[in-house]
Amino acid sequence: MDCVNVLLDGGKGGVESGLKNVSSHCSISEMDDYDLSKLLERPRLNIERQRSFDERSLSELSVGLARGLDHYESAYSPGRSALDTPASSARNSFEPHPMVADAWEALRRSLVHFRGQPVGTIAAYDHASEEVLNYDQVFVRDFVPSALAFLMNGEPDIVKNFLLKTLQLQGWEKRIDRFKLGEGAMPASFKVLHDPVRKTDTIVADFGESAIGRVAPIDSGFWWIILLRAYTKSTGDLSLAETPECQKGMRLILALCLSEGFDTFPTLLCADGCSMIDRRMGIYGYPIEIQSLFFMALRAALAMLKHDAEGKEFIERIVKRLHALSYHMRSYFWLDFQQLNDIYRYKTEEYSHTAVNKFNVIPDSIPDWVFDFMPTRGGYFIGNVSPARMDFRWFALGNCVAILSSLATPEQASAIMDLFEERWEELVGEMPLKICYPAIESHEWRIVTGCDPKNTRWSYHNGGSWPVLLWLLTAACIKTGRPQIARRAIDLAESRLLKDSWPEYYDGKLGRYIGKQARKYQTWSIAGYLVAKMMLEDPSHLGMISLEEDKQMKPVLKRSSSWTC
Ligand code: GLC
Question: Which reaction does it catalyse (predicted)?
């Protein structure tokens, strides 16, 4: 596993040579310092990579880094032949899978233009579906895998356009009925309206006021920050992140989630349906998906905020919050065999700070399934922790992002991967990857979902299998040095996705059936596959979406006496 950890943030030497404009205040390059020392300390390099000289500068920075994988395909470089040929697949593998070309074609078909410029991709290009709903919009979260695919393919402009366009939308005054939303809120999605007569393009954005259930897209702002870092890492172009507009955009998002209130925990309190799971599914409270994204966005912002007067204040708040958040998550959300056994034996009604059972969880509330599900080897971050409530469900996105952001310690990260191996049938089955496990049914489904007919057991958000999650699984596999797990998952996806026309999700305990109401040509299923393929072919891509354990923060933290944990 060690050998691959060095891939994550790129090496300093590479970053320096890859950056067009190295500035003294951008800590992205500083963050990489210790990564390089790690690289030098751990020379477990097995395969020397064949690389081409025509690759983009960022790829060059990882020449020394991409050498750690035990198994991976060798590379060659015929260069780009046609305009639409995906550079990466043409360059990096001997025989690109036939699906790759189809996927690129479908991804390009989903492009959305605003005044002649590509600004995003629509959620689904499914003309057969009777109901369009809002699948013809550009969703912020859905665009992330598209953006990564374009970045990995050396096409950063669309990502820049998207970042700037959504930043403009953030600046709008946002109201729902008579209520004004926080200034930093980012939209869930936006739509470009083309007027063929007047030849004008206009944009309408949805901040939750049109979304089904009026749900708040808390994840949008976090993904925006994470994508800004990915763009910066990938292109070496620091100038975008350094613009006053981007700096302000970041500060506004941070102001929303770092404000002081009545909280007793460093986690972020959320309403149901606030993320990828955008319907009532019992994820209200402190859902793991948001906590992981919050942590990752805080770290990404820390690397990009300028140390000017306004930036400094946020930097200080971020550092404190990261410290408290990582402690809280690693201690209270983590579940493995030992921890489960401890909770099972918890005493209740303990008063004072010496309480072992801090949240007064009643052992009787532990669901039966978790005793069977928990292997001796492996563990995961549970879905939610709040007073007398532990949601023991396993959620894919939160756990993978915890690995990528290094919210998970290296031991926890490998335990999560162990769980994938030990519970392959339950979590992957015939189609990667279950959005959560297990499904809720019967009375519990009625109460928790409000009888939602779309979220019946083993369907959609309720234990359905989402191909988009393949890219997150692949990234987590590479980071933890287990690429063979990703390869196995990709093989499964390749046996079905194209044939089934890239569905949005699959149903059933094993994910064997195309989802009841799944859209076809769902863009993030397509882009997620491409990103997974490109990362496995060239693991150095991982650096744009992964953060190493932040050792630099520790000395700063030690100086404070106010933390008691
Ligand atoms: C569904 C998904 C959501 C996604 C949207 C567009 O609402 O739950 O995560 O962003 O479709 O694909």
Answer: Hydrolysis of terminal non-reducing beta-D-fructofuranoside residues in beta-D-fructofuranosides
